[in-house]
Design goal:
It contains four helices and seven strands; from the N terminus they run βαβαββααβββ. It is of the alpha/beta class. It has a seven-stranded mixed sheet with strand order 1-7-6-2-5-4-3. The longest helix is centred in the first third of the chain and has 14 residues.
Length: 147
């Protein structure tokens, strides 16, 4: 497990970019944290690290956004509004999780039963006493805490 402290959004973006550069096919990353904590900023950096140059936004209303133009395909899931896990089957999550791309999942606790055992859990936490843009980002192989 690794903990990284960032003090501004650019640092969170850069951490994501570094992770994107190191990403391998078939990796699944679970992004956990409250609304507005920086999951999308980290994802935008991750996409940049994969060589994806277009805009990357949270797919809140579509559940899945695919980006094919990088070094590896990026599958960005936001399952916050998912009704049940069957919706994940309908959009073909297995092809994403077990294919040649990389999956990033926001709100992973809602679909925990279908996540691969080797998923990398990333928990982003704010601490306003440390400053508005302070983030504690914990990266580990297992689930850190609830969404």
């Amino acid at each position: 497990m690794k903990t990284v402290i960032t003090q501004k959004p650019e640092e969170t973006f850069e951490l994501g970019r570094q992770m994107g550069r190191e990403a391998k096919p078939g990796q699944v990353y679970c992004l956990s944290g409250d609304l507005g904590v920086g999951k999308t900023v980290l994802t935008q950096g991750f996409a940049s690290g994969l060589g994806i140059e277009g805009p990357v936004n949270s797919p809140t209303f579509t559940i899945l956004q695919s980006y094919e133009e990088g070094r590896l395909p990026l599958y960005h899931f936001d399952v916050y509004r998912i009704g049940d896990v069957e919706e994940m089957e309908e959009i073909g999550y297995e092809d994403c999780f077990y294919g040649e791309g990389v999956s990033l999942i926001e709100w992973p606790g809602l679909v925990e039963e279908i996540l691969p055992e080797n998923a990398v859990w990333i928990t982003i936490e704010k601490d306003l006493e440390q400053g508005f843009d302070y983030r504690r980002i914990t990266i580990g192989e297992t689930k850190q805490n609830e969404d």
